[in-house]
Design brief:
Oligomer: single chain
Largest sheet: 8 strands, antiparallel
Number of domains: 1
Radius of gyration: 14 Å
Order of helices and strands: EEEEEEEE
Strand content: over 45%
Distance between the termini: 39 Å
Helix content: under 10%
Number of strands: 8
Length: about 100
């Protein structure tokens, strides 16, 4: 597994939810070893839509706490980052820089 593409400053996103679509973002702040990375959890803001439905994006310079992520193989052949401290094992993929859809019923 090649993790050389993971750099300090990269933003990764998680998309999931039950009966809704939620997004979370992290930014890599430190390389801790071969497959471990320290990241900060980022705030998000609504780009368009209303408070229940619309596109969101990360606030790049925010900091809502640190998390340790481990690189694991992605199902599409790449690499994803997993929050192993969270019981849900949130998987983060490199953010494409475009706003993400979010909604809640």
């Amino acid at each position: 597994m090649d993790v050389s593409g993971i750099k300090v400053g990269d933003v990764y996103s998680w998309i999931g939810g039950y009966n809704c679509t939620k997004n979370a973002y992290v930014k890599i702040i430190e390389l801790l070893g071969k497959n471990k990375f320290k990241a900060v959890q980022l705030s998000k803001y609504q780009v368009d839509g209303d408070w229940m439905n619309g596109n969101v994006a990360p606030v790049i310079e925010s900091n809502n706490g640190e998390v340790i992520l481990k690189a694991i193989p992605s199902y599409n052949g790449g690499v994803m980052l997993r929050d192993t401290e969270n019981d849900y094992h949130d998987d983060y993929h490199k953010w494409d820089g475009k706003p993400d859809w979010e909604n809640c019923d």
